[in-house]
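Q: My labmate handed me this sequence with no annotations at all. I'd like to see what the chain might look like in three dimensions before we decide whether it's worth expressing. Could you predict it?
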Amino acid sequence: MNNTCYIPRTYLRHHRQLRALLIGHEAWFSAQDLSRLLSCHFSARLPSMLDADQSRREQLRDANGQFAEELLLSESGVYHLLSVQFYHPENRNLRQWLTHEVVADLRGMGQAA
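A: Here is what I predict for the chain of 113 residues:
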């Protein structure tokens, strides 16, 4: 981890936030927010369920404007969790929202910058 602090965009789904951002050209998501969206608890072992390039720890700004170290999950890591580790038929709707709205918005912003 470096000393960079990231300011994510916040997306709402069912009155729950999901913080997401682009690092380079890759979409990354707050693991804490994703666990709330899935209504499940991610254990400290979560990174071991993923390949090394699918998770990272970074300083991320929260809703109060404070920065704290958080676990971030890559787009491929999130899709792996939704389809394998935490499979549920309803996750299809979440995956579609992530793909067609969140990631599309993030990448659209990245092209404008």
